[in-house]
Specification:
317 residues; mainly alpha; three-stranded mixed beta sheet; 14 helices; globular; transducer; OR51/52/56-like; transmembrane; sensory transduction
């Protein structure tokens, strides 16, 4: 029995969607589709704008371009399957494809966090040591920082699907989620999952603590430098360059922290609420980020306006 059981893996999972709200799936699919379309459109506009506008060929905007590419990849790895569940009742998900989705979702999330750290460092150098900005954040350095974020995420998440592959799955195949989330998949295993749980939570905590710590350190240094400025106008201008990044941090980390905490310690939180926030964490930041930077960054705002309204005169100041 033991020998045969090791080979009795289930071939697919059944993704419920949002438990308790199945009757409203067709309606829930509408905002999901809108967020998906807006995320693809908004981030495409950001990438094209930065590419064709020479004045935006700066480290800050290169990081923003990387963030836009990552956001498009993240939302594309999540939204299509959600729409399949909500609109087409396509609940069945092949075991290997489910693990692939889980891997890419968590990888893109960690890359996003690394890019937010890089953007915080960019603001730190620009405000605290502006005279060395061009010598520190050269194009090769920006590229290396981006690659470091990708490599870190790739190897940190890789053990998760590999550890799951070694687990036996016999009868439990229903995932009470709208996508293949790591802990939701691990819970279905018919074996001890202590290693999987321990590794999953250690990765989440290490990324969150390290990245939030680096971001907090950057902004403490930035605030110290800003308050040393004698001119109120100079202070406002310096802090204004950080506004878009701070908004992005709030949009990215707030639902992520809520989702993480409710999944681990929020036993009384209804599953539907947890899954809604977990889904918003993957759909809202990619949609909001280009809007935030488009509104808060004058160069991007003016260039986008000139693309869509070519006859409109854009003010120089």
């Amino acid at each position: 029995m033991a020998d045969n059981a090791t080979h009795s893996y289930i071939s697919s999972f059944f993704l419920v969607g949002i438990p308790g709200l199945q009757a409203f799936h067709c309606w829930i699919g509408i905002p999901v589709c809108l967020l998906f379309a807006l995320a693809l459109l908004g981030n495409s506009v950001i990438i094209i704008t930065i590419k064709i506008e020479p004045s935006l060929h700066l480290p800050m905007y290169f990081f923003l371009c990387m963030l836009a590419v990552n956001d498009m990849a993240l939302v594309s790895s999540t939204a299509p399957k959600m729409l399949g569940i909500f609109w087409l009742d396509a609940h069945k998900f092949d075991f290997s494809i489910c693990l692939a989705q889980m891997y890419f979702i968590h990888t893109f999330c960690i890359i996003e966090s690394a890019l937010l750290v890089a953007m915080a460092f960019d603001r730190y150098v620009a405000i605290c040591i502006p005279l060395r900005y061009t010598t520190i954040l050269t194009t090769p350095m920006v590229t290396k920082m981006g690659l470091a974020g990708v490599i870190r995420a790739t190897f940190m998440v890789l053990p998760c699907p590999l550890l799951i592959k070694r687990l036996p799955y016999y009868t439990k195949y229903v995932i009470n989620h709208a996508y293949c989330e790591h802990m939701a998949v691990v819970k279905l295993a018919s074996a001890n999952t202590l290693i999987n749980r321990a590794y999953g939570i250690s990765v989440a905590l290490s990324v969150m603590v390290l990245d939030l710590g680096l971001i907090a350190t950057s902004y403490i240094k930035i605030l110290q430098a800003v308050f040393r400025l004698s001119s109120q106008n100079a202070r406002s201008k310096a802090l204004g360059t950080c506004a878009a990044h701070v908004c992005t941090l709030l949009v990215s980390y707030t639902p992520a922290l809520f989702s993480f905490l409710t999944h681990r310690i929020g036993k009384k939180v209804p599953p539907s609420i947890h899954i809604i926030f977990a889904s918003l964490y993957l759909l809202v930041p990619p949609t909001v980020n280009p809007l935030v930077y488009g509104v808060k960054t004058k160069q991007i705002r003016d260039r986008v306006a000139s693309l869509f309204l070519p006859n409109k005169k854009i003010s120089g100041n």
